[in-house]
Specification:
Strand order of the largest sheet: 1-3-2
Structural class: mainly alpha
Distance between the termini: 35 Å
Number of strands: 3
Largest sheet: 3 strands, mixed
Shape: globular
Oligomer: single chain
Radius of gyration: 15 Å
Helix content: 40-55%
Length: about 150
């Protein structure tokens, strides 16, 4: 893991994701993927490559996202596959109770909730989208106001 990161919550999340990959015989390696790409799943090699220049928060999100590509057996990147992978990753990392507690603590802002959960805004948005699309949206208990 890259140095300089000491958040115990994300260290635990990252370790659990590494274990999950190992259970499914998916190798995880570091790579220089440039300034934009966070990671990639190479299906034929059963390999997830993560950009070595990411923060721990980004690594957690990226690894969960790439594992989702494995779980859905994605062979190529489409808008649908990317959306589905972010929603899967969000469900891996955020429980409804955690989301509700974060929103109660900081309000409905995606970025504030992301900071409270120590995750990325992309994951919070994906979690909201998944929650809505599964018919579980209850504005009285989760997400009082979505902009």
């Amino acid at each position: 893991m890259p140095g300089g990161h000491d958040d115990p919550v994300n260290e635990q999340r990252f370790a659990e994701l590494i274990d999950l990959c190992a259970e499914h015989h998916i190798a995880v390696e570091w790579a220089d993927l440039g300034p934009i790409r966070h990671g990639q799943y190479l299906r034929r090699r059963r390999l997830i490559e993560l950009n070595r220049n990411l923060t721990l928060r980004q690594l957690v999100a990226g690894l969960a996202h790439e594992f989702a590509h494995y779980a859905h057996d994605d062979g190529c990147s489409t808008a649908r596959a990317e959306r589905r992978a972010w929603e899967y990753a969000a469900r891996l990392l955020i429980t409804p109770d955690e989301y509700a507690a974060a929103e109660a603590a900081v309000g409905p802002s995606v970025n504030a909730i992301a900071v409270e959960l120590d995750l990325t805004g992309v994951l919070v948005e994906a979690w909201r989208r998944w929650w809505r699309n599964t018919g579980r949206w209850d504005s009285a208990t989760v997400c009082r106001d979505v902009g």
